Amino acid sequence: MKTNxxxxxKAIVEDAALPAAGDNLLASTISPSQNETGYFRIYGxxxxxxxxxxxxxxxxEKMNAGIAIGAGVAFLFDIPVTRGDVVSVLFSxxxxxxxxxxxxxxxx
Length: 108
Hints:
Elements: E1 7-17, E2 37-46, E3 52-56, E4 59-62, E5 75-82, E6 87-91, E7 97-107
Antiparallel strand pairs: 1-7, 2-5, 2-7, 3-4, 3-6
């Protein structure tokens, strides 16, 4: 059975200073644009250890079971989303650098 899956780049941040703890790491919130349901794949590295949280609408979800992601350690998470969701990505620390964060929307 063939599935029709598509991928759309939603955000990319490279070599940027971390914002204040708890502020969105992205320039603005993002929302699914294509299908009724799908997921955002979030990949990244941050120069310091801390807790990554994804906020979907008013619900905050700590990634990695709420355990701090190590300094410079790559992470990859899939976040289920539905059309109309508003998503931001938060970090628990301030003094550090975002090596790279890439968020892609996957349909289906």
